[in-house]
Amino acid sequence: MILRADALARQVDYHGQTLTILHQASLSVAAGESVAIVGASGSGKSTLLAILAGLDPASSGEVWLDGQALSALDEDGRALLRRDRVGFVFQNFQLMPQFTALENVMLPLELAGRSDARAAASAMLQRVGLGHRLDHYPRHLSGGEQQRVALARAFVVRPTLLFADEPTGNLDPATGRQVIELLFQLNAEAGTALVLVTHDTALASRCAAVYRLNDGRLQREAT
Amino acid sequence: MSRLSLQMGWRLLRRELRAGELTVLLLALLVAVTAMSSVAFFSDRIEQALTRQASQLLAADLVSNGNRPPPEAWRQQAAQHGLQQAETATFPSMVFAREQAVLATLKAVTAGYPLRGEVQLRTQQGLKEGRLAPAPGELWADTRLLQKLGLRLGDSVRLGNVSLCLSAELLREPDGAMDLYNFIPRALFNHADLAATGLVQDGSRVRYRLMVAGDAASVAGYRQWLAPQLDRRTRLEDVEEARPEVKSALERARRFLGLTALLSVLLSAAAVALAVRRYLARHWQSVAVMRALGQTGGEVALVWGSLFLWLALVAGVLGTVAGYGVQAGLLRLAQQWLGAGLPAPVLAAWLSGPLSALILLAGFALPPLLALRRIPAVAVLRADMPTSSRSLLAPLLAIVALLGLAAWQVGDSTLALWLLGGLVGFLLAVGLLAWGVVRLLRRVPLSGAVGWRHGAANLARRPWLAVIQIAALSVSLMALLTLTVVRDDLIGAWQKSLPADAPDSFLINLQAPQQATLDTLFAKVGRNAPQAAPMMRARLLMINERAVKGSNYVDERAQRLAEHEFNLSWRAAPPPGNGFAAGKWWPADSTQPAFSVEQGLAETLGIRMGDVLAFDIAGKRWQAPVTSLRKVAWDSFQPNFFVIAPQGWMGGESASYITSYRAPDRDFNNRLVAALPNVTVIDISVIVREVKAVIGRLALAVETMFSLALAAGVLVLWAALAATRDERQFDVALLRALGASRQQVRAVILAELAWLGGLTGLLAGIGAMAIGSLVAVQLFNLPLAPNLWLPLLGALCGGAVVGLAGWPLLRKITRTPPTDILRNG
Predict the structure, then answer these.
(1) B736 and A79: CB-CB below 8 Å?
(2) Pick from A56, A98, A107: which is nearest to B738 by CB?
(3) HSE, side-chain direction, 13 A CA sphere, residue B344
(4) Structure letter (DSSP) for residue B391
(5) Which of B46, B405, B594, B682 has the fewest CB atoms within 10 Å, i.e. is most exposed?
């Protein structure tokens, strides 16, 4: 198992009242497997993703990422784990506007101290079809191109696990389809496990397993 | 403005101040107000002191000031006009006591002195104040002289050939207290003792003043009679033109301080503009809500208008108090020249601070505030701030506000325009340079640590903000570097440029027969005596039969040279160390009329080879053609002369002699003056020390003002950092999500500050280096030797200032949790 979550719960205090956002959520993802998490807005998808990726701690329960219990790690420990094993694709692309496409893709490699960052990032951008736009800034790229840069950034470190948060949410349907094709291709090539958060059931059905989040409760759907 | 909106504005102000939303804005206003009011207080009090003390500064109502004793007829006329009279004779000379000699400015005064103002003394009976003059046989010395000679009241002091009793310490003399260059000790004695001292001889540098006082009509009548009698060596001084040198020096100081204050205000204005933008960007939603709740656009503008009005008042009051403190510090530095007990500042000076806060806010906050009126209620439903059409009103109002401030500060609108234009131009030049460097930075391939590239990219991402920050900080940093490092460098370079055996003493007022005594004194220590050169006071009357007048010249130096006397000498052989730019030296035995003129003087006054010059020397006319132009090394510490005539032609005239030498031992000058009591020895090292002390105090005053400008620069930095806070939080969240450690995040932020500070300091250092080299070459005539450490030192200083000021603001951002990346739209 590359990712295992067991009885995750998340509560927040709001004006003295305790609100439960996530109830006893459990799931597991095998190496190379793809898993979709679907749910309506406000169902707690982002909270679950944040906990699974170690961005946010759970109130109770445990997450094992590549065999490491996240609760045993401090913030920097979790950051290190993300750096080496995890890739992200966000709905809003989240590229650094002050960096060129190439520099954005180089960033995770540089954080890992890789000396071949430039060459590796350049090759990855070639792979996503942006070899001619290496020195362009995000503001000069279309939405689809920006998301392809984001895909290159996610895959360039050869992650064992990729989290994608509504990756087509800000794209028109045609561009969205192209990006998703690319995502699944890269995923297959790299043998990366995928956790895809979406409210698009058609997209979700392309994954091996689908979990539905309803009012903070996670249930696996029959496939 | 309605009561309600005033109340709401006040409530809003208190809440926002507590929440820290207005901190940068308030601080920026405070710095501007402090700078403006301190200069306003300073110049107001000095001006008042000058006006009130004008007649006291003169110690009379009308003074004739010349280099010859006033004719008896002038005294008789004054008596006929029913005027009170007194006379003074002022000259430099050595004062002896306890086997030591010190150079002092001596003033012989007649009974009745001072006619206006009061003398303040400390006698053995205690403090005394009034119209007092020393009795014959007595001497009053100022504190500096007492300290230098280790004197006590009652001691005997020798002036030339007479011994006088030190009967009082001179604490204040009306016409001697305000000379900026007055670092030579002073003493007063009775005019009746003057002749007996034997100090006044041909060619001595003595100023004779005949002072009169009385009712205005009599003074005017006397003036009318006297004016046509004056020759060109005598001038009239009255209350209007009292102490012009002090006035112009203080006026210059005032303008300079005004300029630095203006710099602070300009930088504060940038901080205010940035802070107001940020504030309104964070608060437009509240405005939309108020509009949705039924407030009119005008009412909304009134509430926020009154908030800013209150803010201006708070900053105005606090800044004025701070400004008063700064001014008190400035005046302490200038106390030696101004004396204690300055009049309190007038009301206008108190108002200048709050008013400048109001003008600043009106110029920089009003335009965006007025735009608030146009925010529609429906904006409540939107996520983005509605963009208002950019109007010309904002920059126009801002410029008008600044111009108003500048004109008021300098008290002269044309000059203010020039100053403001110069300042803005300078800031623009620095900004342009910064812009280029920032762009260049982005192109430099930086490999290795992620922090450095990220930091550089962050700067380049908002180039205009980076440029504003760099320009704002580097200007004040450059000024401070120039005032501290470059000043010391220059003094050091100048001292180094002197040969080790350069003369350290000048001897003046020597008489021709005394050369033998000089020879004996030097022979006793086994050295050859220097050959003294004759020196006469000469006035240039004509060039080629055309009268020389100051008004013929535009150049200030030329005017002065044309109006005043300068030193002329005669020689047989050419002066050692002089070169010739044109013509050649006369034969040693020449008796032909001829003049050899210093090249610089010739250029200034427009004298060419072959021109016929006419001089007035002690009332006698000397006319000759120019036969050579000489190049003179003025910093050789040898007696040098503008004009020299052949010995065989002029040699018979009476003159005093001058020479310079290196004192063989420490006591030599005392022995020399004891043997030749009429001569004056000027110890250069003492004067250099005094000049350094004076420059140090002046520099400290200017540094104080530039520190305020630096504070304003730091506020611009803060305002810019605050304005980019949200973007930075996004960056940090993303970096954290991508697996950056805390240390890496810190490195990225610190790298940006380091780039910013480094660039700022580098520009400042290079600027200071350039100024230093320019000053060295242009003013001091020293070889160009730029201090190559300055850019490095500047970069370090810049890094330290930006790091220390910026890090506390950004440290919190490094703790942004990575999960924010998922919430951030």
Answers:
(1) yes
(2) A107
(3) 3
(4) P
(5) B682
Considering only alpha carbons, which residue of chain A is nearest residue B457? Answer: A98
Inform me whether the C-beta atom of residue B744 falls under 8 Å from chain A C-beta atoms. Answer: yes
Burial B118-134 (b: 16+ CB within 10 A, else e): bbbbbeeeeeeeeebbb
* Strands A209-214 vs A34-38: parallel, antiparallel or unpaired: parallel
Candidate from A49, A97, A111 with C-beta closest to B739: A111
Contact B819 A96 (CB under 8 A): no
Say how far apart CA B343 and CA B722 lie, in whole Å: 43
Total number of domains constituting chain A: 1
Query: What DSSP state is assigned to residue B741?
Result: -
Check CB contact under 8 Å for A50 and B731. no
Which of A95, A107, A139, A195 would best serve as a mutation to test chain B binding (most B beta carbons within 10 A)? Answer: A107
Global model pTM greater than 0.80: no
User: pLDDT tens for residues B250-279?
Assistant: 666 667 777 778 788 888 888 888 888 888
Q: What is the per-residue pLDDT across B460-508, written as a single tens digit (0 to 9) for each? A: 888 888 888 888 888 888 888 887 887 777 777 777 776 777 788 888 8
Residue A143, domain extent: 30-57+72-221
Q: What is the pLDDT of residues B132-156, one digit of tens each?
A: 899 999 999 988 888 888 889 999 9
Query: Are B649 and B590 contacting, i.e. CB atoms less than 8 angstroms apart?
Result: yes
Checking if the pLDDT of B338 tops 60, the result is no
Closest-CA distance, A82 to chain B, in angstroms, reads 5
How far apart CA A46 and CA B821 sit, in angstroms, is: 10
* Domain assignment present for A64: no
Which string of DSSP letters, residue by residue, matches B248-277? HHHHHHHHHHHHHHHHHHHHHHHHHHHHHH
Domain boundaries defined on chain B: 1-56+247-411, 62-238, 414-504+662-825, 505-661
Interchain proximity B819–A90, CB inside 8 Å:
no
Cα–Cα distance measured from residue A154 to residue A108, given in angstroms and rounded to the nearest whole number = 8
Q: CA A213 to CA A211: how far, in whole Å?
A: 7
Report whether B475 contacts B426 (CB < 8 A): yes
Given this model, what pLDDT does residue B72 score?
A: 92
Strand order in the sheet with A217-221: A68-69, A60-65, A3-14, A17-29, A217-221, A209-214, A34-38, A193-198, A161-165, A86-89
Q: B568 or B400: which carries more pLDDT confidence?
A: B568
Q: How far apart are CA A90 and CA A95, in angstroms?
A: 9
Which CATH number do you get for residue A48? 3.40.50.300
Q: Are B90 and B209 in contact (CB under 8 A)?
A: yes
Q: Which of B461, B737, B743 lies at the smallest CB-CB distance from A88?
A: B737
Q: Which of B726, B728, B819, B820 to mutate to test the interface with A (most CBs of A within 10 A)?
A: B819
- CA distances (Å), origin B410, targets B338, B416, B417: 21, 6, 10
* CB contact (8 A) between residue A98 and residue B458: yes
**A16 found inside a domain:** no
Q: Do B742 and A75 touch (CB under 8 A)?
A: yes
For residues B407 and B430, what is the distance between their CA atoms, to the nearest angstrom? 24
Residue B755: phi and psi, rounded to 5, are -60, -50
B/e letters for B691-713, b = 16+ CB within 10 Å, e = fewer, are eeebeeebbebbbbbbbbbbbbb
Helix (H) or strand (E) holding B508: strand B505-510
Q: Which residues of A touch B818 (CB under 8 A)?
A: 55-56, 79
Residue A154 lies in a domain: yes
Distance from CA of A91 to the nearest CA of B (A): 9
Q: Do A76 and B742 touch (CB under 8 A)?
A: yes
CA distance B11 to A197: 46
pLDDT band, residue B341 (cuts 50/70/90):
low
Written as six digits, the tokens of B286 are 């509240």
